[in-house]
Design goal:
Blueprint: H1 2-27, H2 34-40, H3 45-52, H4 55-79, H5 84-97, H6 102-116, H7 123-141, H8 150-170, H9 174-190
Length: 195
């Protein structure tokens, strides 16, 4: 009986995250109606409060879902490269390029920081950071990167990619801004290499 109840609670949680994702993408965080959102999946505000505490808690869950998927997608792009240096650059560029996606722009890069605060402190960012750190450690061990603290390099590279994505999302012309940003990201990262 308890497992059936837990399964139903998890199903309701996932329904609310999906409904939140749609509402936040369509209307933005401030304009999204919690009554309409919960009604769209046949639930009540009570279910929302039980699962997430409040509207901000729901946004945090939605941001976590999308940002985690962004990190996974960037890592998949990087995995297509045989060379770890090229993989590192490809991951950063892929993350920045996702700023062109309207849902990512609105929820993760505009509303997320405005409501949830510093994105570098979000739990979903840690996975990306750890992956970058492992690649940096490998490149240092191979003598391909300068011997600088790997965590510092990983944090700076991830911070640069994140801030670049924020800039692309907030720019007047994201499509025009993107190539400039990726070029600058690659040039900055190149300064870490041992020639």
């Amino acid at each position: 009986m308890a497992s059936k109840r837990q399964a139903m609670m998890e199903e309701n949680r996932l329904k609310l995250i999906e409904a939140g994702r749609k509402a936040f993408a369509a209307h933005g965080y401030a304009a999204a109606s919690m009554d309409e959102l919960t009604a769209s999946v046949g639930l009540t505000r009570g279910a929302l409060y039980h699962n997430f505490g409040d509207k901000k808690g729901l946004l945090a869950a939605v941001v976590h879902q999308i940002d985690s998927a962004m990190a996974q997608k960037a890592q998949q792009v990087g995995a297509l490269k045989a060379d770890p240096w090229e993989a590192l650059l490809a991951e950063g560029a892929a993350y920045i390029e996702m700023a062109l996606d309207a849902e990512v722009q609105r929820i993760v890069l505009l509303d997320g920081p405005a409501v949830l605060g510093d994105p570098s402190q979000w739990p979903s960012q840690d996975s990306c950071l750890q992956s970058t750190k492992r690649t940096v450690e490998r490149l240092i061990a191979e003598g391909r990167l300068k011997k600088v603290d790997p965590e510092a390099i990983a944090r700076l590279l991830n911070g640069a990619a994140l801030n670049a994505a924020l800039w692309v999302a907030a720019s007047d012309d994201p499509v025009k801004t993107l190539p400039r940003v990726v070029e600058a990201f690659n040039a900055m990262a190149a300064g870490l290499r041992i020639n």
